Each structure stands twice: as structure tokens, then as C-alpha cells.
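Input (structure):
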């Protein structure tokens, strides 16, 4: 098993933390901002120093390629370097820097691979400056229309197209990531599971499917003092009872189901008035589409009338579970176990570029623990020990895949 250089990786992480560093040791590196452009230039320089060829496509995605012994479709590794406002030093950028460290190790140990290795930096994953998130992987995979994406405007009314053309990182469409042997994205977990279970590595099998409903309860608005309880159509207590009942049903579906009522509004929302309407959202995520359809069935079977109130539900949006490629996931797991690191298979509850790329390239992800499960915060942290373990798993998964694939 090959090992990466932990000190070199730590220095890389520290170096890139300077691009957009905040007062509290976090990072604000919005997509295509001056800070992002400086970080991109540094990445390009470091890659060119080790004889990688750097190209950009028409969404500003960066690709740095180390040639292989054969001219085969590359094994692609990486993530994104943009951040949210006052984000952390690990989200996204760690996937790019562990990829760079893996290539450093390949060069240093003179490992000869049949496949080219491409480090990717996807533009505007966070969607923090230009909505939506996963913008460029969405365009590459055909999920989003490019024309609509590049018209997206930031708070200062600058379009993505303008920011990209001024950045110097706009390339031709022909450079887009097309055929590849595999894509592996290392990312921080952004949740508490690995840390709680004292694991170093999450072998990510896919991204959870989800469904989101908006449920409205309509009653009758009236004076809070003069309307006897028996003469009310009160949507708030009706909604409260429904929510309590839903919680019982949801708990009974599957212990891995996660569900959230994240938004609730009362109208007119005045303390002396019985509301006329209460509207809330119900969002649920699970890997098994059957469990998600059980949630949908529960919502469909809600009564249309309750306590004199009428009830209406609308499906706002949903996402199918994305299952990663079995062979690539197996390679990640084999690398983890051969290195003797404590890992476990898991699904991602959050979205990542890999979920879109997986639609046309065999993909998988590697998670490393997030201290306290924190992310999108300045104090987001992953120990350097866990970072290098992740890099080791990434490197060895690439080596395993490269050997397996060339024999096929
Ligand atoms: Zn991220």
C-alpha cells in the first residue's frame, strides 16, 4: 500500500486556507471571485510544476492531467474550490488537494500508471454566489441548460458569464469532461456519523433520494377573544395534531429515514387572530425509493378535511437516490481495508458534484470525518491525520482501479 506525505498535505491545506481567509480562520472564496481566481492560478502553477497539462472548459472547470502509459480515458479525482460566505478550510478544496497530494506521491514514487490521471476543480459547486449549486457538474451531465446557468446573477448583478470571461478561466466546450474511466471525489462528511462511530473513512455508496412536500391547512380566521372554541375552525391546532401524528408514522417507517419540518407559516400571524391558514414543509430522505414512496403515500392519505379545516398537499420537488458505481465503490473499500483504516459504507445526505457526474462516469466518493459534524462554518475542521488517511484511500483506490481496469 502506498502512503501519501502527511506534512506535505497539511502544508497544501494551510497554503490554500490563505485564499479568502477570514478573521476567524475560515474561508470566503466565492466562485470566480478574486480569491477563487488566485487559488485557481496557484493550483494551475502547482500542477504545471509537476508536468501536468492544465485545461479549462466553457464553464471554467479546471482539468490538470498527468499522462498515463496508454492513451486511455482518464481516472478523474477532485472536487471544488469555491466556498460559501464564512465557510471552512476543508469543504471541497480538500478533495482537490488530496488529489494533488496523490499525484505528488505517484510522481515521487515513480509509479507508472496505464491510465492518465486528471485532477478536476468544478466551478461554482456551492451556488453561494451564482445559484444554483452544483452548477457546472449539472451542465456537464445535461441536467442544467448552460444558457440559463451563465445568465445567473450575483448580488451585484454580475452574470456568471461575465465573471467567467473576466476570470481568464474560460475555455472551449470541447474541453469538457466527457469519457472517463472513473471519478472519485473525496469530501468532508458534513455530518456527525463518522466521528461518533470513531471511523476514519466513509465509503460513499450514493446520495440519498429525497422528497419535499408543502402542506397547507385552511381554517377560518376570527377574533381570538370572541370566538368560542367549539365554534372555531382552527388550522394551527389541526396542523399541530397532524404533525404529531406524522412523526409517529414516520418513526415507524425506517430508522434510517431522516425527516424535517423546516418551514412553517401562519396567516395572518397575529397573536389576537385565529389563523386562516397554516402551511408547512415536510422533507424526507432515504436511500431506498420504497421508503420514500411510503412517505409519499402517507402524505397522499392525509385527510382532506379535519376539525372543519381543509387540507391540501403539494409535492415541491424530489430527487431519486443516486447509486454510485459498484466497482469504484469496491475499489475505495478495498483501499480502505488494505490500509487498515476504519471505514464503513454510507450514503451521503447532502448533494455533491459526484451525484451528477455519476450519470455518465462510473463514480464514488470518500468521506472523512467532520469534527462535531460542522460544515459551512468558519470552525469546520477535519484532523490532518484523517485528511491524509483520506488521501491514502484516494491514491490506493486509483491504483487498484488502474490495475483492474487495464486487465479487462
Ligand atoms: Zn463541498
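Output (sequence):
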Amino acid at each position: 500500500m502506498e502512503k501519501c506525505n502527511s506534512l506535505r498535505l497539511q502544508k497544501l491545506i494551510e497554503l490554500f486556507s490563505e485564499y479568502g481567509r477570514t478573521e476567524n480562520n475560515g474561508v470566503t472564496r466565492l466562485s470566480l471571485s478574486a480569491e477563487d481566481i488566485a487559488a485557481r492560478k496557484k493550483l494551475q502553477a502547482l500542477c504545471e510544476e509537476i508536468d501536468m497539462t492544465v485545461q479549462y472548459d466553457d464553464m471554467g472547470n479546471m482539468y490538470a492531467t498527468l499522462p498515463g502509459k496508454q492513451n486511455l480515458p482518464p481516472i478523474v479525482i477532485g472536487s471544488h474550490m469555491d466556498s460559501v460566505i464564512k465557510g471552512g478550510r476543508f469543504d471541497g478544496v480538500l478533495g482537490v488537494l488530496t488529489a494533488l497530494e496523490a499525484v505528488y506521491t505517484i510522481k515521487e514514487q515513480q509509479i507508472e500508471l496505464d491510465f492518465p490521471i486528471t485532477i478536476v476543480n468544478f466551478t461554482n459547486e456551492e451556488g453561494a454566489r451564482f445559484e444554483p449549486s452544483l452548477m457546472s457538474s449539472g451542465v456537464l451531465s445535461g441536467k442544467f441548460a448552460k444558457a440559463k446557468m451563465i445568465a445567473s446573477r450575483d448580488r451585484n448583478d454580475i452574470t456568471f458569464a461575465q465573471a467567467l470571461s473576466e476570470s481568464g478561466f474560460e475555455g472551449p466546450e470541447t474541453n469538457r469532461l466527457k469519457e472517463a474511466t472513473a471519478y472519485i471525489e473525496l469530501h468532508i462528511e458534513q455530518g456527525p456519523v463518522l466521528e461518533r462511530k470513531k471511523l476514519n473513512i466513509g465509503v460513499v455508496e450514493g446520495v440519498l433520494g429525497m422528497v419535499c412536500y408543502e402542506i397547507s391547512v385552511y381554517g377560518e380566521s376570527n377574533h381570538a377573544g370572541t370566538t368560542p372554541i367549539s365554534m372555531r375552525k382552527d388550522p394551527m391546532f389541526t396542523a399541530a395534531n397532524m404533525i404529531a401524528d406524522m412523526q409517529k408514522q414516520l418513526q415507524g417507517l425506517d430508522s434510517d429515514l431522516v425527516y424535517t419540518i423546516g418551514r412553517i407559516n401562519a396567516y395572518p400571524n397575529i397573536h389576537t387572530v385565529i389563523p386562516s391558514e397554516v402551511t408547512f414543509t415536510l422533507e424526507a430522505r432515504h436511500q431506498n425509493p420504497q421508503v420514500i414512496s411510503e412517505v409519499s403515500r402517507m402524505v397522499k392519505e392525509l385527510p382532506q378535511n379535519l376539525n372543519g379545516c381543509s387540507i391540501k398537499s403539494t409535492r415541491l420537488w424530489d430527487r431519486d437516490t443516486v447509486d454510485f458505481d459498484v466497482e469504484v465503490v469496491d475499489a475505495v473499500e478495498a483501499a480502505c481495508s488494505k490500509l487498515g483504516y476504519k471505514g464503513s459504507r454510507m450514503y451521503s445526505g447532502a448533494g455533491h458534484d459526484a451525484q451528477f457526474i455519476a450519470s455518465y462516469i462510473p463514480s464514488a466518493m470518500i468521506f472523512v470525518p467532520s469534527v462535531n459534524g460542522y460544515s459551512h462554518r468558519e470552525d469546520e475542521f477535519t484532523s490532518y491525520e484523517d485528511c491524509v488517511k483520506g488521501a491514502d484511500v484516494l491514491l490506493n483506490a486509483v491504483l487498484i482501479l488502474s490495475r483492474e481496469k487495464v486487465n479487462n
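Notes: Residues 80, 91-92, 125, 187 surround zinc ion (CB under 6 Å). The radius of gyration is 24 Å.
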